[in-house]
Structures are given as C-alpha cells and as structure tokens.
Write a sequence for this structure.
C-alpha cells in the first residue's frame, strides 16, 4: 500500500550539516524536538547514537533508533523528529559530492544509479555491515580529534567506505523497499534525481511514474515534499551535479554546465548564483583551503594529464621518453605540460624522470655487482657519464661512493 | 501497464549518464584503475633472495620479528610495521632465527598509486621520490586501522564483488594516510644535495 506524504512544516534550510567548514568533521547533535526541514547541496551520513524518533525524508517517514544509519542526498529534504519525551543523539558527517566524485572511478549506468538513489535512506539497527559502519564512525571521531594531514586522508577514505558498506546493505534489502509504495512526492524526487542531466519535462516525469499521474499532481506532490516545484527542484539537482565536478583541475565551467544538463552556460551561472549567492568560481574557492585557520587542507584533484604522465614515467622510466611526443599523445603540448608540472607539482618532467632513474640505479648499485656503465644503460641514462652527473646532482655523491656507503651496512632501526 | 518507471528497467537501460555518483574522467575508467589490486598473506621462515619490485607495494607485519633489506639498508621488522615500496626498490626479508614473519602485502600498479596521490586532501608541495622507503611502527588507533585495512583487502580477494576495486582502493588510501601521518613532514620534501643543486 502506498504511504502517505507528510508535508513540510516550513521552508527547508541549508548549511546546517554541510559546508566548507564541516568537511571531514564529525558533528554531534542532540535533538530534543522536531527540527526544521534541511535541504543541503551535499550529502551526509547520520548515525543515531541514542534515542528513538522519525526521519521524514521527502515526505516519507522512517522510524529510527540507536544504531540506525542514514545517508541523506542533496536531493532529499530531511526533518528530524524525536519521539515524545525522547532525545535523539546524532553523529553527522558531511560527504560532499566532490569527494564522492573523486572516489568513483567510472561513469555509472542508469540502472546502478537508480539502485543507489532508490535504496533505503535509513538502515539498521540490525543487519550485517552495521557494526562495521559504526566502527568506522567511531574511528572517524578519534581521527577528527587529530586533525592532521594523514588523518584527513584516512577520514576521506572512511566516508567512501561508509558509502560502499551502506550501498551493499541497501542492495541486500532491495526487496523490502519498493518504488510503487512510496508517496508520489518521493517517487518524483527520485526519478528527477536520476535523470537531472537529461532534457526532461514535468509531463515526461509524470508519465514515467504512472499512467494516472498528472503534471499538476506531480508539481503539487513535489512542493509538499520538498518545498520546490518541478523546475526549481530540477535546476537545483543540476547544480548539485555540477558542483560534484568542481574539484577537477582540467574541467572548465562551460563543460561542467553542459554535462550537468544546462543548455546554456549563462543559465548555469545565473541559477548557480541564485542558489548559492556566489559565482561558481567563488564557490570553488570557498571549497578549497590552504590548511590554515583551523580548517582541513583541501586542494584540486590532479588533472588526468598529469596523472597519466606520471604513471607513464613510473612504468617506462628505463626507456627513451620524449616529452613532446608524450604530450601529443595526450592531446596537449610540451609547453602546457611543463607549466602544469611546475604549477601543480613544483618540479619538472625531467626532474621526475631523473629521480625515478636515479632511484632505480640506486637499487641496482646496492643489490647487484653490475658495473656502473651497465647500470647506467639499464636505468635509462644511456651513458655512465650522464648517470654520474645526474646522480651527483640528486644525491651529492657519485654512484661509486653511494655503493660503497650503502654496502658498508647502514642500519635503520626504525626510531 | 503502459508506462514503466525507470526503476524497473530490467537491464535494458545500460545508458551511461552523468550523475552525482559517477565521477572521474574517462581516462581513469579506461586506463588507470585496474582490477588487479592483489593482496597476499606471506609466511617467511628463512631469508629470501632479492625481489625485483615492479609495482607499488604496501607491507604490514602481522607477526614475528626480523628485518627487511631495501636497497642495501636494513630496517627492523616487528608486528604492526608498515612499509611502502616503489618500483625502484629491491628488497629481501630476513626473519630472526627461529621466528616466522607473517606479512600481508598488497600490490597495485603505478596508475592506481598516482591516482591515490591525486586525492584533494593530500598536500603535494613538491613531487619528490625519496631514496629510502617510508617505514613506520604503529600502535593504537593507527595500528587498528592498518590491520582492518589489510584484513579487508585479504577478504576482498576471496569475495571479488562489483565494488571490490572501490573498497580496496579505500583500504590502500588508509595505508597511504597512515604513512603520511606518521612520517615526518620533511620526508616528503626534496632535500638539497650537499653539492649545491643547479638552480
């Protein structure tokens, strides 16, 4: 039987659980009475530590208790209601779409997308995997206290692990949560969430949801569940999608606008400013952080060109490599590549290649009896003289001196 | 029923779309990220000969004591020692007399490793490859995380589900994070050579 939709009590608010100051932070809340509705641009996880209550997600009610975990998307309006006389103690972690985008390696099929979006937004308190998620939350909390570079990297991967474990659980519970039993507002929101990048109209969505659903009914249901009409909701989701690509070094905004479903770049810029109050450029700058002022360092994701060049160097360091040929194969120029290396990695293509070759030569010097000339050729230098010069530049000693020093038995006892 | 909603596509729609759940570039999908993150548990009773390392490897000592010799330098091994070796490291294990070293090693190709260091939370002031590998001795929370990650990697080797590569990547990222946490900051920076480098 179809569930009833619970209407919103007021206009949803943003920046409650998400925002640049909340990246990789574990937030702790105690909710004693029904909260205002929340609609964020990013997604977030909630772990219920204590108490009982109800999460109203796009008009649909989900009972929660201690040990329940919820993954709220940027397409979902959440109202938290503790049961009468109870208080809900919650742990919340923002899981921004830029990070999710980095950790997701492949473009996804519509079916897989639908399965993730259509999954249960609340799981637990029982079930295989819940304990692992709770353990991750607890370790995340400990790591938040450290607030160091290494702990930030670990916390970022924890969020992705929580997501993957969550998806595994919802996948195994697929049969318990059916699309046809959801209220219309939630059905519509889920459909739009999976199709926002396509050119869709309210009439098409209504038709896809059911033969008896009219455009007016769809608009009304969306308004009741999310506080937004079809067009507002669709544009919001397109902007959420667009923000997920903001951290890629090499993607310009016009391209981001086009892949997010905006036909015109100017529309994207206008709507973005209307939603966030700032331009996409400013929004991107706000997302980044130098690691000062008590916030976690956050930079851009390295461009695919740089990643592919460094990977290529790792794999082929002992071969002859021409930077211009390599650049051409990657549809760029040697000069652009040199600039990217300098600005992003504070080094040059040549220096990286030399480092790789010298390190490989070190391995051969210390673990074989090969003469230096053979090692020079084996490690890609071409001649003993070049090896000697580059080796001295990097290590401050000749290959022979290095071999003598290392093979003399240098010990490291790990302190 | 005339109109089926798209949540019941029965496999007919494998249309690839852009969504909040599909990140990265085509390049990563097509070239970099492999299905070959391999993890093994090794039990070593006798000294091994030098191994030529072609991949990026994370090693975690689970039990036993001994030493590892990497490019001519010896490092002491004890439980919860974590090491990262690159393709320019040749190494051998020497267990202590009468002891057995139990080591988990997890390998990935260089493309995966470079994608790991592209993490927006990893601050790369300068790309520099050090001569000596990072070796850290773990206790407490970080030791727990390292062991959880290696256990997770080992169990994924047996399961191999659709999202195995993704979760293995996270486990490896944990190990990279631990090394970043424990190694001194100066380790990741280029040290000027005594010759006074060319500028």
């Amino acid at each position: 039987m179809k569930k009833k939709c619970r209407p919103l009590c007021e206009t949803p608010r943003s920046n409650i659980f998400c925002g640049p100051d909340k990246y990789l932070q574990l937030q702790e809340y105690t909710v004693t009475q029904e909260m205002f509705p929340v609609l964020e641009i990013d997604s977030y996880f909630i772990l219920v530590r204590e108490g009982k209550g109800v999460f109203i997600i796009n008009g649909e009610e989900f009972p929660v208790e201690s040990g329940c975990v919820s993954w709220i998307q940027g397409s979902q309006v959440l109202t938290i209601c503790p049961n009468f006389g109870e208080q809900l103690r919650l742990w919340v972690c923002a899981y921004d779409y830029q990070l999710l985008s980095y950790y997701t390696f492949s473009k996804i099929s519509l079916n897989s997308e639908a399965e993730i979006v259509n999954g249960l937004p609340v799981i637990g308190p029982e079930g295989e995997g819940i304990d692992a998620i709770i353990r991750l939350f607890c370790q995340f909390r400990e790591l938040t206290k450290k607030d160091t570079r290494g702990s930030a990297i670990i916390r970022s991967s924890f969020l992705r692990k929580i997501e993957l474990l969550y998806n595994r659980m919802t996948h195994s519970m697929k049969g318990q949560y059916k699309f046809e039993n959801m209220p219309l507002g939630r059905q519509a929101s889920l459909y739009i969430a999976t199709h926002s990048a396509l050119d869709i109209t309210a009439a098409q969505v209504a038709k896809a949801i059911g033969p008896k659903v009219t455009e007016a009914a769809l608009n009304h249901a969306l308004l009741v569940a999310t506080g937004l009409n079809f067009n507002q909701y669709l544009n919001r989701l397109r902007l959420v999608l667009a923000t997920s690509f903001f951290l890629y070094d090499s993607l310009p905004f016009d391209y981001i606008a086009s892949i997010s479903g905006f036909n015109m770049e100017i529309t994207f810029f206008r709507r973005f400013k209307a939603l966030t109050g700032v331009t996409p450029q400013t929004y991107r700058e706000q997302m980044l952080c130098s690691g000062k002022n008590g916030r976690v360092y956050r930079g851009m994701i390295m461009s695919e060109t740089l990643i592919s060049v460094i990977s290529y160097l790792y794999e082929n360091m002992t071969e002859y490599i021409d930077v211009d040929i390599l650049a051409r194969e990657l549809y760029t120029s040697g000069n652009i590549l040199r600039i990217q290396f300098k600005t992003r990695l504070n080094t040059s293509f040549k220096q990286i290649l030399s480092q790789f070759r010298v390190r490989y030569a070190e391995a051969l010097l210390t673990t074989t009896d090969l003469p230096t000339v053979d090692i020079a050729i084996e490690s890609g230098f071409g001649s003993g003289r070049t090896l000697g010069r580059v080796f001295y530049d990097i290590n401050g000693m000749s290959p022979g001196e290095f071999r003598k020093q290392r093979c003399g038995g240098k010990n490291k006892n790990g302190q | 029923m005339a109109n089926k909603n798209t949540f019941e596509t029965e496999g007919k729609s494998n249309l690839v779309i852009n969504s909040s759940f599909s990140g990265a570039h085509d390049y990563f999908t097509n070239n970099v990220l492999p299905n070959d993150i391999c993890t093994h548990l090794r039990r070593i009773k006798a000294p091994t000969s030098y191994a030529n390392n072609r991949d990026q490897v994370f090693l975690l000592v689970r039990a036993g004591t001994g030493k590892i010799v990497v490019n001519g330098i010896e490092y002491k091994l004890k439980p919860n020692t974590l090491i990262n070796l690159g393709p320019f490291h040749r190494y051998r294990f020497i267990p202590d007399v009468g002891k057995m070293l139990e080591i988990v090693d997890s390998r990935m190709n260089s493309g995966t490793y470079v994608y790991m260091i592209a993490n927006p939370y990893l601050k790369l002031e300068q790309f520099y490859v050090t001569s000596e590998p990072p070796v850290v001795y773990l206790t407490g929370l970080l030791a727990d995380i390292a062991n959880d990650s290696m256990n997770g990697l080992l169990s994924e080797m047996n399961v191999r589900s659709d999202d195995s590569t993704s979760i293995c990547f996270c486990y490896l990222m944990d190990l990279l994070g631990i090394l970043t946490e424990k190694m001194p900051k100066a380790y990741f920076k280029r040290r000027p050579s005594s010759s006074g480098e060319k500028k």
